[in-house]
Amino acid sequence: VSRPGTLITDVGSVKTSICDVVGNSNLPNGVTFVGSHPLAGSEKTGFEAARADLFVGRVTVVTPRSATDDAACLAVRRFWEQLGSRVVEMSPEDHDVALATTSHLPHVAASALAATLPEAFQPLAASGFRDSTRIAAGDPDLWVAILLENAAAVGVSIAAFSEAFRKF
User: Fold this and answer.
1) What is the mean pLDDT of each run of 10 residues along the chain (168 residues)?
2) What is the pTM of this model?
3) Is residue 73 classed exposed, middle or buried when 0-12, 13-18 and 19+ CB atoms within 10 A define those classes?
4) Strand 59-63 with 86-89, pairing
5) 103 contact partners, CB below 8 Å, separation of at least 6
6) How many helices (H) and strands (E) does the chain have?
């Protein structure tokens, strides 16, 4: 059980649902939640992939609600800044729409491209193919959860990408 004065944040890739569920009205008295999402990392997982400078120069999105305590939001902002992040604030909903295009769609596109490679062509897949499909190596269970949780916004991004691809 969290004591009064506890400040909670997260690092999830989809904000609206967690901000709705963990929102301050669902927490014990005096416990505050402010959503956040550092835009850092790679397709690698586990402690072997840890880096001391992971957040330096990277953007972290902080997603307060209108009722979020200003002091709590400032504390989360300062936390990320102390780790070297440049902090951007936006609503959870705006975050999810933006990340559908800037993060989730690229993963879908890389995965789709990787899925088109016949086994017979694998020896011919050089650096361009490898660079274009690197992020498809991310944890599939994590990506299924992200894509399902942000399905509506990702669907809009996929439709826009499909139209641009069709025109190309």
Assistant:
1) 91 95 82 95 80 94 93 97 98 98 97 97 96 93 96 98 97
2) 0.91
3) buried
4) parallel
5) 13, 39
6) 7, 5
